[in-house]
Amino acid sequence: MTTAFDRSAVRCTPAELLDVGRDGFTLLSHGDPGTPVVVLELDGADWSGDLVHAVTATLDVPGPVVIGNASDQLPEAVRPVLERLTFTRAPSGPGRAWIPADEHELSRICAHVATAPGAAVALHGLLRATAHLPVPEAILAEAATYSMLLGGEEFATWRAATPPRPVPAVADPVRLARVGGDLRITLDHPKRRNAFGASMRDALVDALRLAVLDDTIGRIELRGSGPVFCSGGDLDEFGTARSPVAAYLTRLSRNPGHLAHQLAERLTVHLHGAAVGAGIELAAFAGRVTATDDTWVQLPELRLGLVPGAGGTVSIPRRIGRWRTAWMVLSGARLDAGTALDWGLVDEIV
């Protein structure tokens, strides 16, 4: 293991991790993570109780993304270590903390993290926090982290390379229909692939508030019109808030995720085609999620220098665990409908 840390990922054994400690992965002088990713090699370690205790104590200290790496099935004894890692690449193991990725994908994830190391480290800490917080407080933590990153260099670099274009106005981005005790909500801006911009967010918030206030609505169904359910946040609106503080306050006052959580027992979301970013983040709050077999989901926020900001660090971990959520963000990979079903991100393929 190299102790002259830089922005690249380093590999180490559990014993080497104990020698250096989390404090060894220091910040650089300008505040960037000295080493955003540590790959912890789990093969060949004698997982005695003392080693498990020492490694877990080291991993309890906040620090960089730490990805476990194993080529063999992991024993039950190592579960406390896996639960503290960001996630683990392994063929199988206890719990939900491991991903059946290959070595090539692990290298790709490390390279992906290097493009936005601050956001990646913030994600690791955020997911650890939101897992133990009630949903309303967890949403607050996500909003604060997301808004902070909007003021960061990594997002500014992406925004400079991707200049926003004018956003066309749409009169009714969300369509409502009341049929008996059912409220049917449709995201209805197919020309924009139902991109989740401010007007759609506000219209959806109004619809969900109606359902909260009206207890004669027994069932709420949410769909998207056109070829996809939702292509995620409208990229041309990203970073247009007056300040990170304004962005944070907007997320507190106009948050459809919190309302979807309140309505979970009555809310069913029907996915088809792409469910990207906000599309899957909001859906995961629902008590029931169905998907067509052509559905795919993705959390692409890291390439913007951000973390999920529509409730995804709260809703998705409660369905699939924080480790697989971290893998989705850090890899940026698409998840097909079958895997989403296996993991519990959707409840039925229709």
Taken together, the total number of domains comes to 2
Q: Termini, distance in Å? A: 49 Å
Averaged pLDDT, please? 91
Low-confidence segments: 1-7
Number of E-type strands: 14
Helical content band = 25-40%
Spatial ordering of strands, largest sheet:
6-7-8-9-11-14
A few lines on this structure:
By secondary structure, this protein is of the alpha/beta class. It has helices at residues 14-20, 49-59, 79-84, 103-114, 117-130, 135-150, 153-161, 198-213, 244-253, 256-262, 278-283, 312-315, 317-320, 322-331, 337-343; strands at 10-12, 37-41, 65-69, 87-89, 98-99, 174-179, 182-187, 219-224, 267-271, 274-276, 288-291, 296-298, 335-336, 348-349. It has two domains: 10-114; 137-349, 2-enoyl-CoA Hydratase, Chain A, domain 1, CATH 3.90.226.
Detailed description of the structure:
With 350 residues, the protein is of the alpha/beta class. It folds into 2 domains: 10-114; 137-349, 2-enoyl-CoA Hydratase, Chain A, domain 1 (Alpha-Beta Complex), CATH 3.90.226.10. It has helices at residues 14-20, 49-59, 79-84, 103-114, 117-130, 135-150, 153-161, 198-213, 244-253, 256-262, 278-283, 312-315, 317-320, 322-331, 337-343; strands at residues 10-12, 37-41, 65-69, 87-89, 98-99, 174-179, 182-187, 219-224, 267-271, 274-276, 288-291, 296-298, 335-336, 348-349. A 6-stranded mixed beta sheet has the order 6-7-8-9-11-14, with helices on one face. The protein has a 5-stranded parallel beta sheet with strand order 1-2-3-4-5. The chain is globular and about 60 Å long.
List descriptors.
350 residues; alpha/beta; 2-enoyl-CoA Hydratase, Chain A, domain 1; 6-stranded mixed sheet; 5-stranded parallel sheet; 14 strands; disordered N terminus
